[in-house]
Write a structure and sequence with these properties.
With 462 residues, the chain is α+β, with helices and mostly antiparallel strands. Helices cover 34% and strands 21% of the residues. The strands form five sheets. Strands 1-2-6-3-7-17 form a six-stranded mixed β-sheet, sandwiched between helices.
Length: 462
């Protein structure tokens, strides 16, 4: 690998410059005014893939022609005896607001303190380009790859991945592979690379309650008319008990305890609970009793209210019964929990709490299953060796409390092993102001990726 390493060193500054070019494109998938920028970002990637020697094209699903474009690339010729690896990534980014909270403009990349600051630096433009640049090095130095390599880079990860989900149904054979590589996750901490083997799922609800046709005087009507805000808080307060357990009947029916082996493995991770809380500005936390913080975050389901809206919020007092109240809340799920069953259980639990005079509407805004794969796998072994070479230390094995919905979809559609190997940090502010990506980890990621193609080529298919 010495000649590939030499290429990576000689082109390191160019890689950073190209990343900056990519980051300057405001590819915000949630904003309709950015549609042309989405096309520009996809074309930037297509040209990049073609320039390094891959066949590349823009894809649009037949059933969703208005989807943001996907970029597909593939190595050639096919090596019959070699495994096929699909790299997944996304070029769309979160909105940058509030703009005033950024120290430098979000789409004008800034390098300082060993980091590159820009929207999309860590999530996911910087991470996905590590695999592009490692592939470039292999093709420039060796003339070919040791594996059959495919890329699919979408522009809708931040808004639900509807286009890619449709394409997986329309053209599953195009994406057929033995292993999927995804770098859209984080390390366990600085200098602690990680392989993520499980993620929680989610069901996200909006609950709307409507009462009288307009706000009412609480002195005239209070005590006789159902108050939507009172009902809403009573409903939400009935979801979790004082021990932090969800009270919805049947919620835990499919929740299995983790093995003692996995509990011991989690216990060996260097995790400072006090520092964890200090970094987010709180003195401590709460949650389901009987579990550690990491177990609560990674291995147990949870309930969180994300937003509440009702009544008067202006200055001073206004004595009213509000006409409506609404809330957005979610349940994080663990493997074997069925989102569909949870939806029905929650609906059946809340509906009887709705009193006369209140109209209730419960809407599911998003849902996906949890994802988990066995740690003992030749694909995991290959990734572990590559990371140890690229980072200079072995990776730890972690779960993630969040969800990447397309991961479960890829696993179901392709039946391939999913390798979640991220180079970012939880402190990268991926969805917040001043998003950043360590340049040291950027180059470590490229080096690790170059090793990964070699290590994966040694895995026997089937």
């Amino acid at each position: 690998m010495t000649t590939i390493d030499k290429f990576l060193r000689e082109h390191a500054s160019r890689f950073e410059a190209e990343l900056c070019d990519f980051l300057r494109i405001p590819s915000v998938s949630a904003k309709s005014e950015c549609r042309q920028e989405m096309v520009r970002a996809a074309e930037w990637l297509r040209r990049k893939f073609q320039s390094i020697g891959l066949r590349a094209e823009i894809l649009l699903p037949k059933s969703k022609p208005d989807a943001h474009p996907l970029v597909y690339a593939q190595s050639s010729p096919v090596i019959p005896e070699a495994p096929t690896v699909l790299v997944y990534g996304h070029y769309d980014v979160q909105p940058a607001e509030p703009l005033e909270a950024w120290e430098t403009p979000p789409f004008e990349p800034s390098r300082r303190d060993g980091f590159i600051y820009a929207r999309g630096a860590s999530d996911d433009k910087g991470q996905l380009l590590t695999h592009v640049f490692s592939t470039e090095a292999w093709l420039a130095v060796r003339g070919s790859l040791p594996i059959n390599l495919k890329f699919v880079i979408e522009g809708e990860e931040e808004i639900g991945s509807a286009g890619l989900a449709a394409l997986l149904q329309e053209e599953p054979e195009r994406f057929a592979c033995d292993c999927v590589v995804i770098s859209d996750t984080a390390q366990f901490g600085p200098g602690q690379p990680a392989i993520t083997y499980a993620q929680r799922g989610i069901v996200y609800f909006q609950l709307d309650l409507e009462g009288p046709h307009s706000d009412l005087h609480s002195g005239t009507y209070g005590g006789a008319v159902s108050n939507p805000a009172n009902v809403l808080t009573r409903m939400l307060g009935a979801i979790v008990d004082e021990r932090g357990r969800v009270k919805v009947p049947g919620f835990y029916d499919d929740v299995k305890p983790i093995s003692e082996e996995e509990r011991s493995m989690l216990g060996l991770l260097s995790f400072d609970e006090d520092k964890f809380f200090e970094e987010i500005g709180v003195s401590g936390g709460s949650g389901e009793s009987g579990f550690t913080v990491l177990e609560r975050l990674w291995t147990r389901p949870s309930f969180d209210i994300s937003g509440l809206s009702s009544g008067y919020q202006g200055e001073g007092a206004k004595t009213i019964i509000p006409r409506s109240a609404s809330a957005k809340f979610s349940f994080r799920l663990v493997p074997d929990q069925d989102p569909g069953k949870i939806v029905q259980a929650v609906k059946s639990y809340l509906e009887p709490m709705c009193p006369p005079g209140i109209r209730m509407k419960l809407t599911v805004l998003a849902q996906c299953r949890a994802f988990a794969l066995p740690i003992r796998s030749p694909w995991i072994d290959a990734a572990r060796r590559a990371i140890e070479e690229g980072f200079g230390c072995p990776p730890v094995f972690i779960r993630a409390g969040g969800s990447i919905p397309i991961v479960s979809a890829l696993h179901r559609a392709l039946g391939a092993y999913i390798l979640l190997v991220g180079w970012g940090q939880e402190t990268d502010n991926a969805h917040g102001p001043n998003e950043r990506f360590s340049l040291v980890d950027f180059h470590r990621g490229i080096r690790t990726s170059s090793r990964l193609w070699d290590e994966l080529s040694r895995v026997k298919r089937g």
